[in-house]
Amino acid sequence: MALLEVNNLTIRFGGLVAVSDFNIEIEKNDLMGLIGPNGAGKTTVFNMLTGVYLPTEGDIKVEDKSIVGMKPYEITKKHLARTFQNIRLFKSMSVIDNVKLSYNYQIKYSYFDTIFRTPKFFRLEEEIEQKSMELLKVFKLEHKAEELAKNLPYGEQRRLEIARAMAANPKLLLLDEPAAGMNPQETHELMNLIKWIRDHFDLTILLIEHDMKLVMGICEKIVVLDYGKIIAKGTPEEIRANPKVIEAYLGEECAVHA
Amino acid sequence: MKQHFRKTLIGFGIAVIGYILLSVLINSKMLNDFYIRILMMIGINIILATALNLVIGFTGQLVLGFAGFMSVGAYMSAVLTMKLHMPFIPALVLGGAMASVFGLLVGVPTLRLKGDYLAITTLGFGEIIRVLIVNIDYLGGPRGLPAIPKYTTYTWVYIICVLSVLVIYYIIHSSHGRAMISVREDEIASESMGINTTYAKISAFIVAAFFAGIAGGLYGHFLMFIDPKSFDWLKSFEIVTFVVAGGMGSLTGSILSAGALTLLPEILRLFGFSKYRMLMYAILLLILMLFRPQGLMGSKELSLKVFKNLGFKKAGGEK
Hints:
heterodimer; A: alpha/beta; Rossmann fold; 2 domains; six-stranded mixed sheet; 41% helix; globular; B: mainly alpha; 13 helices; disordered C terminus
């Protein structure tokens, strides 16, 4: 049984078919890349997977249960978490509060506990604090826990976004251009980090990325999207050699040198 | 938890000292009735401002027509004490609860909207509540409800004001509060992290409406007379002004600005501007918005740490 199974996913915005007949299967522990030229519909796929857009047709199954029509917060509870292409941190909240937020649906206490500051409140807040701190340590952000998210440098904001998604306890993590705007050094560190969290947290990852070094370097499977349609699927080697992909996206040079 | 107990003790101590100071001033006749009335008005306005700040400042939902909930509480509690002879405090709480019910009724359909749409629809709902009351004869209609027993004392205003600020502070510093703030910061991201944003918004709204209702009850039993006109959109905007001037997302800002802006017209009156005092009020607000558009406190809180740091610097200088 695949962790994520997408069948015939199609979405139309008015007359525009943004994504059509999108089929993928992601097995547990896969690290899959979704690539394609700008405007191919990659982020639209993510938005459908996470419930931001409602697909016109098709089905999305997580562990054999359909999640189509669910609200984004309900889908998160099915252990799908994501990051965003243009960073969407809670800018005026502290770094640790950004992470703590993701525990909201997992560690709950009532308004009664809140207003009367019951022992339960302190016990659970303590637990949230500890878990958040552990995650921040993993992402090497613990020394900035009390800083406001907006004051972090760009690379750390990207890392914080992944940390926040990890706190939502995902089985499937969706990363939307995690390396966008990073320098080669940062990208390299990010590659190792992604591989490491996959192994350490026993995760399945689907990522969108334009940095071919990163995609070819860590993804075991790649799906190529062009004009809303899948034009190729396969291992990095197969994708690199695929004439359709070279024409639509990679270009001659990359195919030769990469 | 230990830290919490220490903080609570300190806070409790400060509250008690404040109360003792206040009652000494009042009992020694240093403050005459006029000042006591202003102080009580300040207390009521602080409740309103902090409650509305929870919605506008922390949850980021621009809600107007807040005075509507105040009127629900005022009428409800006035009817309970006058006609059903209920004791004051249960009547107040029930007034607040009734306002919450209205908050839920108004919140469920409107909080799906965003920004200016939300502002206009909530303003409309505030007016609906007012017009409803105008048309209910039992509540005195447009003539209002006179001869409400004067139950509101400065002690009650003080206690309830401190409690409501405390409750709102506790909510903000909890997972519920974090959910509310995350809605303000980025609703899409918040929802993607498993937050039911509608629930967060509506619960903020209900809590705020509750305290507006309580404030309304205090207000009615203080002036001994209420009419629908005292809860029109002007009153709503007055409360929004407190919140914006104090800084959206700052409780201490709301407290300071509710205090200052309630005092200001009276001070201007004392200085002989009685004719032009509202004009001056407007000009001072304009100046504030020009030079501090984020409000008095921005989204920062004034805390004891500030004084601590000041003291520390001085001590450090001596070394």
